[in-house]
């Protein structure tokens, strides 16, 4: 999932945008082809510039805006593709959409030199794995997302934590509780909560589904009822019972905890959140919700995602966007050429510098543009976290899997040692078609 501060679009606006895009797509076959590129709301201005740069004498790339909600994005794209819409050319895809769409044969695979171009050795391991399905390259990695532990250096110092070494969730929660701080997470009943659960489980050495069977669809083996599942539940239960819990814990999202890093009262927070955070706070110096001055901004620290179990390497979440080409596009060849352009190093650098949406390619992290825009140790942390990140289950039934987990793990205040088994039982029923969401 690509997750971000929650923004709401009025239903009427979304419907109007969809209607306009349909009209634009049906505007006639004469003249230069127009390739429709459906994007999510992240980095709109940058992507508009990229679309203009990547348009050629043969075609123009035309931006179409999807809703802000990942669920609504999936619904709109799936409806178009299920109807074999020939005007769906390029799509910005959340990682968890890719298996479902590829399994349904809705994506046009990249082949030959073009496949080698969009997925060469420069692409980091995490984003490389999520764009492959049944030994085919079905999307082109564009930008990548991961979570790190953001924190106030003064808070960590007061707690005696050495942030140059790995820290555990238990240490972070105790440090915040004992020193007038809080811990910011995403625990509302939505996809980002599953991201947290998945990372906690993988960090304990387990998986929601057996990776060896995950692509078997409904026959995948459910493995969440495990010691790793119990370790994950313990972390959530500990935070739920801690005074470090933030007031909106059960409805928290990527945006709600941002304002508690630099509060008027209190020591600030430890917060797991995505790569956009640095640019967000840098742009808020001296403004409401941000650091009061540059000195306070420099109290912002970052470290690797916390360990679920001490001594076991954490598995940071993996998000981002890859560009897919509709299998029913009237202009598949042009669309795939365009996809290669809008995911090139120049586009990835522009998204990182302007919007905090980090590259999928290691060479872009090493570029002068990024070295000027970010501290070098933060760039290293981002790239290493993305390269070693843990993906959510790569299943064509991921939408049902996620909804089933949300229904049994929410509210986080109710999570306990029995939650993994309850969720495993329900998830098995869902996959077997014996229960409804």
TrEMBL record:
Keywords: Signal, Transport. Transmembrane segments: none annotated. It comes from the Bacteria. InterPro entries: Bact_solute-bd_prot1 (IPR050490), SBP (IPR006059). Pfam families: SBP_bac_1. Belongs to the bacterial solute-binding protein 1 family. This is ABC transporter substrate-binding protein.
